[in-house]
Every structure is written in C-alpha cells, then in structure tokens.
Amino acid sequence: MPWGERENAYFAYSGMFVGERTLRNWCSKLMAQNAIAKVGGSTYWKTEFVNGIKVRTQVQREDTIAYYNRRTEIIQQETGKNILAGMTRKGAYKEAWGVAYSLLWDELKCCYYCCKGFLLTAFSNDETMIELLELTRQISGKEERLSL
What we know:
Helices cover 54% and strands 22% of the residues. The protein is an alpha+beta fold. The longest helix has 20 residues, at 65-84. It is elongated, with a radius of gyration of 20 Å.
C-alpha cells in the first residue's frame, strides 16, 4: 500500500497521527534490524485528483498493463533521443522516466504503480511493534496503553 495509505491505516489503528516520512524511517530501521522484510507480492495502485483531492485506489494488475506498456514505449524513445543528444546512458534513462511520467499524467490525469507489502520476520516479535506504538503514544501525549 502507498505510504499515504499506511499513514491513514496507522491513524485508524492507533488513533495517533504519524507522518509518512516517519513511517518510512521506522520501516527502514526495522528492515535494517531484520525485524520486517518486503514480501514478494505487490499490490497495484492508481493515483489521481478528483475534485482537487488526491485519491489513491487499489486496482487489479490487468488495469495497469496498457499504462506500463505505454510508459515503456515512451522511456525507450526518450532514452534514445537523449543518448543521441549526448547524454550518458544513465542520465538519458533517468531523464526519460521523468518525461514518461509527465506525458502520461498529461494524457491520462493519473499514474499507476505497485507497492510491496511488509511482513514480520522470524527475528521480530510483537514487543517491537508495541514499543513503536508506545513511543508514538509518548510523543503524542495520549494516555491509554496500546497493545497488538
């Protein structure tokens, strides 16, 4: 699930707001300690603006195929143009990604992407998660104790 959705889910679960950047930092620290790992299966998402509000919805993989095919086509074309213009291959490819996303956003008014999930590993335990919740509680000033 996208980080913004994880932020909302954490709030729904704990009643406390923790920003997207903080969740990313926690995640990287937990991964570094082998407490969590990315799992193989991905979920697919679509982001668009509806009445000026950013909306993320989960979609089926099949819904993304035309988008990914078109993106690949644009990236290949733009990378070739950039290399002919004298850019390094790495720079040409990086620039082509930005162009592809911009063109597709202009065409479709949305973007599609996939997100991997996380799984507690054998090296983790519920105490790690409770400790994170307790630290959040202390920072936010909430009085009730949390449990999983």
